[in-house]
């Protein structure tokens, strides 16, 4: 019986990396804009509740960007086990710094 093989991926790993980096940069730019809004709110004497809400959004955006960066590094390690730029222990330590 012949087995059916899935078609080979036509996505260039380099293109996928560039796309992932673009997403991360977009997250960081969004966080930068949110942080600017927090600074303006503090300088203008905005309500504490509003400032804390905006600050929470900045914090979450930065956390998500950090997780995306670590996830990208993990994917790279899985795709190329011979690449020793980061050991699994180093990746774990990096991930835990976000906690």
UniProtKB/TrEMBL annotation:
UniProt xrefs under Gene3D superfamilies: Metal-sensitive repressor, helix protomer (1.20.58.1000)
Q: Which domain of life is it from?
A: Bacteria
Keyword Iron appears in the UniProt entry: no
Molecular-function annotations in GO: DNA binding; metal ion binding
Q: Which InterPro entries match?
A: Metal_Tscrpt_repr, Metal_Tscrpt_repr_sf
Q: Which GO terms describe its biological process?
A: negative regulation of DNA-templated transcription
Cited Pfam families: Trns_repr_metal (PF02583)
Keyword Zinc tagged: no
| Keyword tags | Copper, DNA-binding
The similarity comment for this entry is: Belongs to the CsoR family.
Write the protein's name: DNA-binding transcriptional regulator, FrmR family
């Amino acid at each position: 019986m012949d087995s059916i093989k899935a078609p080979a991926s036509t996505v260039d790993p380099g293109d996928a990396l560039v796309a992932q980096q673009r997403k991360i940069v977009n997250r960081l730019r969004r966080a930068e804009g949110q942080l600017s809004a927090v600074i303006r709110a503090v300088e203008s004497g905005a309500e504490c509740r509003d400032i804390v809400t905006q600050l929470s959004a900045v914090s979450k955006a930065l956390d998500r960007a950090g997780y995306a960066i670590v996830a990208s590094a993990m994917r790279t390690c899985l795709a190329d086990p011979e690449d020793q730029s980061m050991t699994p222990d180093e990746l774990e330590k990096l991930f835990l710094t976000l906690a």
